[in-house]
Amino acid sequence: MGVSLSTFLDDAGSPSLEQCETVRAQAVELLEQICVHPATLPLQWLRDLHLCPSTFYRELLGIFAKFGDRHTQCQLPDPYLRTLVCLPFAVACFFENRELRIGVTGSALDELRPGDILTAWNGRSLDCVLHEHCALQLGANPEARLAKAIQTLPFRPLGTMQAPEDAPIHLDYTDRAGNNRRIQLAWQAGVLNVPLFASETDAEWNSEGSLRLRAIQTSSGEFGMIRIGSFYENPPIFLQTFLKCLERLPQDGLVLDLRGCEEGFVITAEQLLQLFTDQKTSPQPFEFRATRTIREIVANIPAFREWRDAFEDGKDYSGPRPLTSCEQANGVGRKYFGPVVVLVDALTYSSAEMFAAGIQDHGIGTIVGIASRTGGGGASPWSQQAICQFSGRDQFRPVPEAPSFRVAARRSRRVGKNSGRLLEGVGIEPDIMYSLNRDDFCNQDRKLLETVGEILAKNKNKR
What we know:
alpha+beta, six-stranded antiparallel beta sheet, flat
């Protein structure tokens, strides 16, 4: 599977003191001049950061975790960036008697199987362990931090998250027969290769790129379902693929599953709204922070010319402008005439959130959430390399074999009935909240899909 964590850390090496000094100065300038969030505390933490090469990476990652914006993050260089430290299983959560349970969804171990329920970690409750693990996450709100903490409980991407303590893990769990068991595991540095949706067989889904589709049978009728894994695809190609998927599914109701869909292109996501409504859709507008460097970039880069007249003296932010054009948002028109339900969770983030917000803001469909809100990623990030090119400043040039950064450069405003509200840091509150239960966990969301079917059946005449 890989090498031990201690072996990896011994071989990975540390930065030089000069690299530490340069990287810290770059991080300060990026947060001060580019980041759309005022960053008073993170800037102070960075300025106070002790430049010790042996601890620099860990402390730098800790500062960005406390900042809590997944669009604004530090990425360590190779070999950290391409390495996961992991235990050989994957987990998901559900609720039982209002208590959070953590269950195994996939495993490479004979002793630990899908359906087993974790009960303790090194003798400590899962609640305590998750509470501590939340502090390492880049979530913008508590719901997002908890969701990421659960997802990454058995693995840590070392490029963006602090390594765990190099010690054996004593894992207590209850197996599917109700027996209490314990297993000892060790962290390994390598690639995690455990399916996150291990209970779903390929026969139940058809795949088209980042889309998975199937018909779902409920007591309220047969409906279509599309799981969107990512919006990272060329907008016209994605739109055509999506239209093909729609044609293959029942037309009396559609479930769009955005759970765990974390990032992508804004235009790719927002162009889909038109497919489900007769009204003209309005893309979300974005605004910059009015810093000296941002004003210079906007003035000099043709791609940002729409914002050149958007700055007013004395205002902290520019006026808002959309990234998606009216033609892209409305050039195809409505193609699906059944009711729509959108499933979201606290890992629904960024462009996926903007699509879900558009559904809600335009009154197109019903948002069903298995968390009280989504991840709060309503921003547009820039990589450090892009910032260097946009600004023409060598001070932003990434240092070879050293940490680099990406920064949330623009934040979005919602439209329609939620006009002017921020998505960034806040997230979307679902129209209907649903708590996954043991039946959902063990039987592929059976009760959830029954609930969704009831919603679609009630709205079948509201087209």
